[in-house]
Amino acid sequence: MKDRIRTDLLDLMQVPGLSGHEDRVRRAIRHRLGEVGVKADTDRLGNLVTHFPGDGPSVMLFTHIDQLGFIVRRIEADGLIRLERLGGVPERALAAQEVLICIGEGRDVPGVIANKSHHATAPDEKYRVTPYSEVFVDTGLASAEAVEATGIQIGSPVVYAPHARALADDRIMGTSVDDRAGCAVLLEMARLLNARTSGPPVHLAFSVQEEFNLRGALPLAQKLRPDIAIQLDLMLATDTPDMGARGDMFLGGGPGMSLYSFHGRGTLNGVIPHPAMVHLFDDTARAQGIPLQRSAQVGVLTDLSYVQLVGDGVAAVDMGFPMRYSHSAREVCDLNDLVSLTRLLDAALARIGPDFSLDRDDYT
Question: What would the CATH number be for the domain defined by 2-67+175-362?
Answer without folding.
Answer: 3.40.630.10
